Amino acid sequence: MSEDRRSRSTEAFFGRRRGKAMKPRQSGQYESQLPKLRIAIDTDTAPASMSVLFEHAPAKVRLEIGFGGGEHLIHEATRFPDIGFIGVEPFVNSMAKFLANASEAGLENLRVYDDDATQLLDWMPANSINGIDLLYPDPWPKKKHWKRRFVNPQNLSRFARVLKPGSLFRFASDIDTYVNWTLNHCDEHPDFEWLAQTADDWRTPYEAWPGTRYEAKAFREGRTPAYLTFLRK
């Protein structure tokens, strides 16, 4: 499927797909590694279990949507080699950077999708994922663009369909309006429960949190990140 065709058919991706020209190393890794790791939903039949997409057939599979440079995704895949990780990132330059770093790390428990995450979610079988991370997504800060935010009733229902009961949806952002937006939408959705126990829980980073470039920028600019965790009932 061509890039232009994917752009016309997209539902939840509204940003640009390319930035400045890639460095030769990144371009080479992108061309060589993406075909090996990419989930081709336009040609592959959805499996009964997402574990069959990995050579080691992991008992658990996690999904990260919009991984940027991949700092967190690579960190988690390194921490948990027995878990399969699927990363979604439509921005070409970020995907290229990630593929170069993942290749250097020698990780074998990764698969990727380089288009609209809603397409992948709709392709996945029900009850097939053990966790979803949505970390520092595009906040679309102007109120007239809030409808473009990835967290919405339709996508939360997509999450609920693919997540196994008892699994976690984790959301991090440094934009107050998006944090409140997410809390309100998850509170109104029957399949999710916020797991905060104390008033400070939302300020506490996740276990072994490596930080991200976006988080570092938030700190530099004086914004306080929030780390939300929701249970798929």
UniProtKB/TrEMBL annotation:
Domain of life: Bacteria
Residues that coordinate or bind S-adenosyl-L-methionine: 64, 89, 116, 138
Region (Disordered): 1-29
Enzyme class: transferase
InterPro entries the UniProt entry points to: SAM-dependent_MTases_sf, tRNA_(Gua-N-7)_MeTrfase_Trmb, tRNA_methyltr_TrmB_bact
Listed GO MF terms: tRNA (guanine(46)-N7)-methyltransferase activity
EC number(s) stated in the UniProt entry for this protein: 2.1.1.33
SUPFAM superfamilies in the cross-refs: S-adenosyl-L-methionine-dependent methyltransferases
Catalytic activity reported: guanosine(46) in tRNA + S-adenosyl-L-methionine = N(7)-methylguanosine(46) in tRNA + S-adenosyl-L-homocysteine
Positions of substrate binding: 142, 174, 212-215
Pathway entry: tRNA modification; N(7)-methylguanine-tRNA biosynthesis
Keyword annotations of the record: Methyltransferase, S-adenosyl-L-methionine, Transferase, tRNA processing
Record-linked PANTHER family: 3-DEOXY-D-MANNO-OCTULOSONIC-ACID TRANSFERASE/TRNA GUANINE-N 7 - -METHYLTRANSFERASE (PTHR23417), PENTACOTRIPEPTIDE-REPEAT REGION OF PRORP DOMAIN-CONTAINING PROTEIN (PTHR23417:SF14)
Family: Belongs to the class I-like SAM-binding methyltransferase superfamily. TrmB family.
Chain's role: Catalyzes the formation of N(7)-methylguanine at position 46 (m7G46) in tRNA.
Protein's recorded name: tRNA (guanine-N(7)-)-methyltransferase
Species annotation: Ahrensia kielensis
